[in-house]
Amino acid sequence: MAAVAGAALALTLAACTSGPDDDPAPADDASRTVTDGKGASVEVPADPRRIITLSEPTLDGALALGADVVGTTSGRGQGGPPAYLADQATGIPVVATVAGPDIEQILARKPDLILTDGTVSADDAVLGKLADIAPTVYVSKTAADWRTAFTALGEVLGRTAEADQVLAGYDSQVAEVKGKLGEHADDTVSIVRWGSGQPSVLLRELTPSTIVADLGLRRPPAQDREGEGHSQPVSRENLDQLDADWMFFGTLGGPTNPQGGNAGAAAGVAASEKALTSDAVRTPGFTELTAYRNDHVVPVDGSAWASAGGPLAATVILQAVADAMAEPSA
């Protein structure tokens, strides 16, 4: 669905992914005060030029807004930035994992703003160390709606108009895909993360689930509930909880290594295809699921579908739904 793919470019408004640059930006004393996700007031640069993003959503959102990112986190279960952001994040050094930041590496990047949120480990002691380096903003809490979190990020970066434009582009993409679902418009959709031999399902509060809901698609009963901001494990004896008319099946290649991600882990559609054929279909009962019998199990990029993200992840997710479920054009 080329129109949806092309809209990804519209979401990245003059995206600028600054690579390593050891020279700090010119001094600028202008600043603003923002209220972070914990209710604290933080004085931030009016025009930050050397931003560290310590979570997947803040990286995604900063890139979508064309901000200058000079250090970031590895994606969950990966050795580098989230696989779906590989092109946009080229040249940005990894200075953290979801398990925590590397303070020395962050200090070396000479940031003028540090962004984090509730999707990664960041207790008050860590936040205090980061705040000693540069203004540090805890953008949003665990399980915050991705649109609300992105709007807050736009305010922190002083790019509220740009954020509104990105979200308007998202709404247009949703309307486009929704209008082409045809007979599938009322189908049920299961979102499955398959990792380390353990299936999990994504519940209502996570980014992919909210996007599926925006499309008007329904979730099976076992997945149509709120969780705690992460995937919910499902025992192999209860595989029926994975079933629906359609199953979007993703993997992240394994658990995150706290020392720097899982450098050997594969990510993307190919990794999900491998997990499906080498493990899932060998699990007793999986091939009896309705989605499998109807050839409606869709391997997807787990870095976008099975983790936390923002508007750029949303475009990847919408494209996958369109490719799988939209009716062919006449």
Please tell me about this protein's structure:
- This protein has 330 residues and is of the alpha/beta class.
- The chain contains 11 helices and 13 strands.
- It has 2 domains: 2-166, 3-Layer(aba) Sandwich (Rossmann fold); 182-325, Nitrogenase molybdenum iron protein domain (Rossmann fold, 3-Layer(aba) Sandwich), CATH 3.40.50.
- The longest helix has 19 residues, at 160-178.
- α4 links the parallel β7 (113-116) and β8.
- The strands form 3 sheets. Strands 6-5-4-3-7-8 form a 6-stranded mixed sheet, with helices on both faces. It has a 5-stranded mixed sheet with strand order 11-10-9-12-13. The chain has a two-stranded antiparallel ribbon with strand order 1-2.
- Helix content is 32%, strand content 16%.
- The chain has helices at residues 2-11, 56-64, 103-108, 124-133, 146-156, 160-178, 207-214, 269-278, 290-293, 302-305, 311-325, and strands at residues 31-35, 41-45, 51-53, 69-73, 94-97, 100-101, 113-116, 136-138, 189-195, 198-201, 232-233, 246-250, 297-299.
- α1 (2-11) runs antiparallel to α6 (160-178) and α2 (56-64) packs across α5.
- One of its GO terms (cellular component) is outer membrane-bounded periplasmic space.
- It comes from Mangrovihabitans endophyticus.
- It is found in: Cell envelope.
- Residues 50-329 form the Fe/B12 periplasmic-binding domain.
